[in-house]
Structures are given as C-alpha cells and as structure tokens.
Amino acid sequence: MTFDFRLQNIMTFDFRLLLLLFWTGLSAQEIDSAVEETDTISEIISETPPPRYIAPYAKLDSIARTVRYDGNLEKATYELTKSYSSEIEKTRAIFAWVTANIAYDYKSYNKNKRTDFPKCKGKDDCAAKFIKWEADYLNNVLRKGKGVCDGYARVFKKMCGFAGIRCSVVSGWSKQYINQVGRMGALNHAWNVVIIEEKPYYLDATWAAGYCTRNEKGELDAFHRSYNDYYWLTPEDRFLRNHFPKDTIWPKTSKADKIVYRDQPYINNHYLSSIDILSPESGVIKVKMCEFIKFKFDLRYVVRKMQVNTNLYKNPRAWVLENGEKVLDGNALKKQKYVDLQDSDLFYEFEYEVLDRNLRFIEVLFDYNVALKFKVEVVD
Asked: What is the CA radius of gyration of the chain?
C-alpha cells in the first residue's frame, strides 16, 4: 500500500479570518494538551516502533538542525533555506529546525499561565499592536527555547513567511487520551497548514517535537524530545483522527466532519502511522445482543498476538517493569486469552460476539499493548 501524503484540494483561505483566533485569551493550559498517557506500562511497545518515513529527508534534517539562532529569525531562516529551491524542501528545513530547537514549556502549562493579548481599538491600532505583540512573543519563545503549541505554530508560520511559504496557524480540538472516544476532546491546541504548489498540507510541530510525562500528582514533569514524523504533511484523513479545526472556514473548505472526528476510535500513538481501520467504520459501535462485531485492520508490520479487553473482562497485564526494564510476566502469560484471527494474507481480521448488555467498551491489544479502543452501545 502506498503512503500518499497528498491531500484533497481546499479553496484558498482568507488569512484575515484567522487573525480573530489571536484574541481568544486562552491560557497556556487551554492552548495545549498533555501528550502522554497516564498509564506508562500500557505505552511500552514490544516491537520496534513503526517506520516514520524520514529517510528521504535524513541529510536535510541533519543539516537544518545545525543552524544556530543568534537573535535574528529571518537570518536563521535564510541559512536554513538558501540551499533549496523547492517549497517542500524549504518547509521541511524549517520544520526540522523548529522541532529540534523548541522544547515544550510544561511549567507554563502546569501554572495555567494566560497569554496576554494586546488591547486595541480599530483596525489600524489592532494591526500595529498585534505586530509588536507577536514580535515580543516570538522573541520570548526563541530566547527561552521553549513554548506551548501556540509558540511552536507561530514560530513555524513566521519562518515560512520569511521563506515565501504560505502558512497559517489553526486552532481547534485535539484528542490523545484513551477515554475520549465519542468526545470532542479539549479545545486547546494549535497547528499549521501550509500551501505548497497550491495544495494544503497539515503539520503539527508540537507533537512532532516530542512528548511530556506526568508525575503522581498528574502534573507534567518533563519534556522528552523524540521526533515523530507522523505529523509532517499528515494526510487529512489521518490528521483528523486527533485534530479538528475550530474555525468554520476549515470544515467548509475541506472534508472535515465533526461527528466523524468525535467518534474516532482511540489509536495508541505508536500505531497511528501504521494502521488503517477497515472495520468497524466508527469508534462508537451500536450493536444488538448476540450480534458479531467485525474487526478488520490493515497493518504495516507483523503483530504476533492479538487480544480483546472490555469493561467486563481484562487480560492480566503481561508487561511489567523490573529495575527500569520491560519484561514479560511469566505467570500473567499463562492466563492470557487471544482472539482467533481469520486467515488472510492482507489483513488482520476477527469477530467479537456481544453476549452481555453491560458491554461498554472494547480495547484491542497488539502483542499485549493496548492499541485501539472502541465505545460500545448495546441497543434493542
């Protein structure tokens, strides 16, 4: 199967409408969300992480990450892009630099620190004050080398402007938690859309840069830089698995569907780039008693064992941590139940029969790790 990064065409968007997003008064905590599951064990993966499609840009990325910022962002952008003639190479160089040079400001997130937007009256006054405010804001992000998602998105947009790349900041809902199936998630995130050769492409520099962990109090306690190429030019249908734009210009000019987004199944971050869910069609499954739910996945790597957990039954946890290392619990392995996979050279398929009206959710495990979650509604 080819991995096509091209997106559906959308009409040229009006940048003036997006300026309205800058005066929302959101706090840092409202602007961004945590990116790490609270259950660290379930995040441990027994296989090598799926391929991230970075090979074509390995040399470009390596060079871009050596460019230093000396207080002049336009100069840094020129150094990054001067050797490239294509828009996509320039955009990639900027993306590689931003994700390597800005850390997530988890302390601001924990403090629920609010962004102080300028007060203004009239078009000219607002335009002038916004230009100064944004310059100060970007300088602060770049000087500290850290920011929340709004900082990542604005720095990326500014650098694209210097390079002649059309780019906009988009704000909206995001989802990363296992209990958010059937919910919109938090209206607290920001990302970018670029126009390259008259086609729109989605990027999320914040989530591409790394992830945060939480302490026992539920606070973010560290940022871990871990580049994730999934959020570089993500195809629209995949990007909308966990992002949805707030501004109505986007749903009207793309195939974004709020209900489809809301009802997406949970997909563990480790599997986002490697799976197509062919069945069920939604993360919210309505089913009658004694009916079978058909699961069918297209996976780009081998899964040896597949299991199902529900609110009615959970397999014993197979992976445990001993002295900081991941090991399999031999006693737990003896108690595991596995699904009967149907013979197929192309897909992973199995069926689950609904035998209890109290069934509320189904988790699908790949090699003892929670990979997917579906919400279930048993109807008459």
From this structure: 22
